[in-house]
């Protein structure tokens, strides 16, 4: 099964303290969101991925903000089960293809999506979704590029997520709203679980 079909929402997590990783992942899984993207933006990221991969087997943990081949190596070393990038360079794509785990290279235009499709890639992150044209842009791409599917990320909220999820070329959406820094700092995992449970219903509930 494709990464895009495992859950309607992929929480995008910026983690400052690796000690929060396991309870955070457990809360997201309990809420119904097993796919978790840990961004490689903080020194704690690799350790967080390592801990989740080791201690929360129900989670599918991957690395986000992957920008270089070295990032791919670091993510795989930590045990990342998938890779997500904000944009795509030739060397990054080569490293992602060779990684042996699912990957979502970032695109923001028709030309970028076509360039990846030429390389055989059919699943991509659309970033920054709202700023790059949002639901209207993605809907327009579904005509000429019906075989390409996206995970839009960047500016997705509980208010607009359902519109994205209703598109034929969107498998899931990504967003940081489920794991705000204030809840992580407070250790409010019950609230995170509740946010995850609400998000897990987005595709089906009216
Ligand atoms: C990111 O890489 O920061 C993601 O796209 C999350 O964006 P968001 O904070 O707008 O959800």
Summed up, what is this model?
InterPro entries: Aldlse_KDPG_KHG (IPR000887), Aldolase_TIM (IPR013785), KDPG/KHG_AS_1 (IPR031337), KDPG/KHG_AS_2 (IPR031338). This is 2-dehydro-3-deoxy-phosphogluconate aldolase. This protein is an alpha/beta fold and 206 residues long.
CATH C-level name: Alpha Beta
Instruction: Give the ligands present.
Output: 3-phosphoglyceric acid
Q: State the domain count.
A: 1
Secondary structure class reads: alpha/beta
Distance between the termini: 26 Å
**Major beta sheet, specifics?**
4 strands, parallel
The name CATH uses for the topology is TIM Barrel
How many β-strands, per DSSP?
Answer: 9
Structural account:
The protein has helices at residues 21-31, 45-55, 69-78, 90-99, 110-118, 134-142, 161-165, 181-186, 189-200, and strands spanning 9-13, 35-39, 60-64, 83-84, 103-104, 106-107, 123-126, 149-152, 173-175. The longest helix has 12 residues, at 189-200. Strands 3-2-1-9 form a four-stranded parallel beta sheet. It is α/β, with parallel strands linked by helices. The protein is built from nine helices and nine strands. The mean pLDDT is 97. α1 links the parallel β1 (9-13) and β2. It has a single domain, classed as Aldolase class I (TIM Barrel, Alpha-Beta Barrel). The structure holds 3-phosphoglyceric acid. 3-phosphoglyceric acid binds at residues 12, 86, 127, 153-156, 174-176. Belongs to the KHG/KDPG aldolase family. Its EC number is 4.1.2.14. Homotrimer. One of its GO terms (molecular function) is 2-dehydro-3-deoxy-phosphogluconate aldolase activity. It comes from Sphaerimonospora thailandensis.
